[in-house]
Design goal:
about 40% helix; Arc Repressor Mutant, subunit A; alpha/beta; Rossmann fold; single chain; 4-stranded antiparallel β-sheet; 8 helices
């Protein structure tokens, strides 16, 4: 699974803790593997009783709960966990197609749901969005990014090339930051749209071309170029 976005962590840099609850052991192991790839700590449980105990012991930042469990359902798991951690974000997994089942999870206080079968990418994307919205996470970042003679300070938003300061708009800054976090890596228009503009894949790719041209005028004008186009593949930032 390709990582498109930066690793999410707590603001102090420690790992996000996720509780995954499903009675299908193969599914929980698959989900745990995908989440560990994101740099998160994962605890799994196969019953509601084990889930409540795990939540008490590990204090997760977010929970992924199957609606159907051997002892009691995901709604009851959420109620018991929320009794001790009222703010815990929850995503429900449901195999049912009934709209009423999905609605019941949300009206009971769940934050989101995915219907089985689902893709790992979809669930991870939903989790990332939920972690951001809940304020649990922050992107893991270095205060300063350096590629060749190009420097970007993520705290002050100052950008310089060979010591000369460069003024960027907010969108230009975010685009350059993404390129600089992935030096020498070819990034497709779809990836850039998803990361910088948060558009779904297949969105308005021409906006990427436009902002790449803006960046080139400010970063590369009169200098050895750093931003390169690979036709049919995307864009790459390399040291001059």
């Amino acid at each position: 699974m390709a990582r498109i976005e930066e690793t999410l962590t707590h603001p102090d840099g420690t790992a996000i803790r996720v509780l995954v609850v499903d009675d299908e052991a193969s599914l929980t192991e698959l989900l745990a593997m995908a989440m560990r790839y994101e740099g998160w700590q994962v605890t799994t449980a196969g019953t509601g009783t084990a889930a409540v105990r795990a939540a008490r012991e590990h204090r997760p930042d977010v929970a992924v709960l199957d609606m159907m469990l051997p002892d009691f359902d995901g709604l009851e798991v959420m109620r018991r966990i929320r009794a001790e951690d009222p703010e815990l974000p929850v995503i429900f997994l449901t195999a049912r197609d009934a709209v009423s089942d999905r609605v019941s999870g949300l009206t009971a206080g769940g934050d989101d749901y995915v219907t089985k079968p689902f893709s790992l990418e979809e669930l991870i994307a939903r989790l990332r969005g939920l972690l951001r919205r809940s304020g649990v996470s922050a992107p893991r970042s270095e205060a300063q990014l350096v590629v060749g003679d190009l420097t970007l300070d993520e705290d002050s938003h100052e950008v310089t090339r060979d010591g000369e300061q460069i003024q960027l708009t907010a969108t230009e800054f975010e685009l350059l930051r993404y390129l600089m976090r992935n030096p020498k890596r070819v990034l497709s228009k779809a990836q850039i749209l998803d990361r910088v503009w948060h558009y779904d894949f297949g969105g308005q790719a021409n906006v990427v071309e436009l902002y790449i041209s803006y960046l080139r005028k400010k970063i590369d004008a009169g200098r050895d170029p750093m931003i390169h186009t690979l036709r049919g593949a995307g864009y790459v930032l390399r040291p001059a």
